[in-house]
Design brief:
Rossmann fold; 6-stranded mixed sheet; 6-stranded parallel sheet; binds L-homoserine; alpha/beta; Dihydrodipicolinate Reductase, domain 2; 14 helices; Alpha-Beta Plaits; single chain
Length: about 425
């Protein structure tokens, strides 16, 4: 008789119940593939009596989730509570210290404490795995740590917050402003309890910081990420960008440059013909570029019961099989401390502005761009009835510093009405 792998699950929300359902639905399949049975022995959640749509009566109950980490009959703690600190952190630390493996979906915890927790897991000879923390059901951690292990990774990009992608694509399809669609998303239950985690780009930034660490062998460095949410993206920009052949996405980009590690989670334009530009609704997409494999595109559900529980179970099954992979794909002590690149790699930029419709106004803007070393690729002036002319400019490659300088010069021209909009066009 083979020894079962005994799980203690902390958190019985959407994902936790999804895990319970998989373990209950597929005992033979899991035992066959894992080489031993996978069993749930104990659970912990905020309410014992709540109807969750799955029978948990056979499992031991702990009011305090950290007690799961102290039980002799638990081999593997599944942490699905969430949050950067507090009980989730205490549970993971206690579990590892007590010689238990840990599987978590907690991107906030790992993006802030991942370096220390990975080192702790390795010092105890245990696994700390987090497939479900990044892009829900897409097995992107496995792709990077295993399938692409022979590649030097050149760039990782992704749309990794389904709520933001829902909002942006719904704004376009329904021609509705941000505030209206934000409220819709709230009513549909798409937003995190703190909506700024979604629309401020923080949740997606957490995910990107974890992918960066694996891709480039660097310590997790969320704090150096350039972060901008989608709150300032207007329906006008979405429509005008489309007119020029682009879609606007909350796009994460990580790449190692000669100036250090570049990590950005910002609204960007991408060509509408690229899979990233075609991504609709709450779906996630991760694009990885390796020196041997070239560009690969992974697409799938970034959240939800089944997809996220599927990712949790992928990690559980590795542990059942006795497969140990360092948390970030290489020993934590070998992760490099890369400096953060302050200026982003050059790229074309989208500039939208409204000018006073008077002789020489456009020439002043063109001069300001030229004086900043920026060359114009395409320009469009839209028809207008009043004294204000809407102008769109797509530049040739420029750095974020060049663009900042040009925006400063624009202010001095005296021909601008309101604030100009500048968004990077990611070359994908
Ligand atoms: N709120 C996230 C999203 C899912 O909308 O993608 C959890 O990270």
């Amino acid at each position: 008789m083979t020894t079962p792998l005994r799980l203690g699950i902390a958190g019985l929300g959407t994902v936790g119940i999804g895990v319970v359902k998989i373990v209950q639905a597929h005992p033979e399949l899991l035992a066959r593939r894992g080489g031993r049975p996978v069993e749930i022995v104990a659970v912990s959640a905020s309410s014992r009596t709540k109807n969750r749509g799955a029978d948990i009566s056979a499992y031991a109950w702990e009011d305090d989730p950290v007690q799961l980490a102290r039980r002799d009959d638990v081999d593997l703690v599944v942490e699905l509570i969430g949050g950067e600190n507090g009980v989730a952190k205490a549970l993971v630390e206690t579990a590892l210290k007590n010689g238990k493996d840990v599987v978590t979906a907690n991107k906030a915890l790992l993006s802030h404490h991942g370096n220390a927790l990975a080192a702790l897991a390795e010092s105890k000879g245990r696994s700390l795995r987090f497939e479900a923390a990044v892009a829900g059901g897409i097995p992107v951690i496995k792709a990077l740590t295993e399938g692409l292990a022979g590649n030097a990774i050149k760039r990782v990009m992704g749309v990794m917050n389904g709520t933001c992608n829902y909002i942006l694509t719904r704004m376009e399809s329904a021609r509705l402003p941000y505030d209206v669609v934000f409220e819709e998303a709230r009513k549909l239950g798409y937003l995190e309890a703190d909506p700024n985690l979604d629309v401020g780009g923080i949740d997606a930034g957490h995910k990107l910081s974890l992918l960066s660490a694996i891709a480039f062998g660097t310590r997790v460095d969320f704090d150096s990420m350039v972060l901008q949410g989608i709150g300032s993206v207007s329906i006008d920009d979405i429509q005008l960008a489309r007119d020029m052949g682009f879609s606007i996405k909350l796009l994460g980009v990580a790449q190692m440059t000669g100036r250090g590690l570049e990590q950005r989670m910002t609204p960007c334009l991408v060509p509408e013909t690229h899979p990233l530009g075609q991504l609709q609704g709450g779906t996630n997409m991760v694009v990885i570029e390796g020196d041997s494999v070239g560009q690969i595109v992974l697409r799938g559900a970034g959240a939800g019961e089944g997809p996220t529980a599927s990712a949790v179970m992928g990690d559980v099954m590795d542990i059942a099989r006795g497969i140990t992979i360092p948390t970030f794909g290489q020993p934590a002590e070998t992760l490099a401390q890369a400096p953060a690149a302050v200026v982003s790699t050059g790229a074309p930029w989208y500039l939208r502005m409204t000018l006073l419709d008077k002789p020489g106004a456009l020439a002043k803007i063109a001069t300001a761009l030229g004086d900043s070393g920026i060359s114009i690729d395409r320009m469009r002036q839209y028809s207008h009835d009043d004294a204000h002319a809407p102008v769109l400019i797509v530049t040739h490659k420029a750095t974020s510093d060049d663009i900042a300088m040009a925006l400063e010069r624009f202010e001095g021209t005296g021909v601008l009405v309101g604030e100009p909009v500048a968004m990077r066009i990611e070359e994908v």
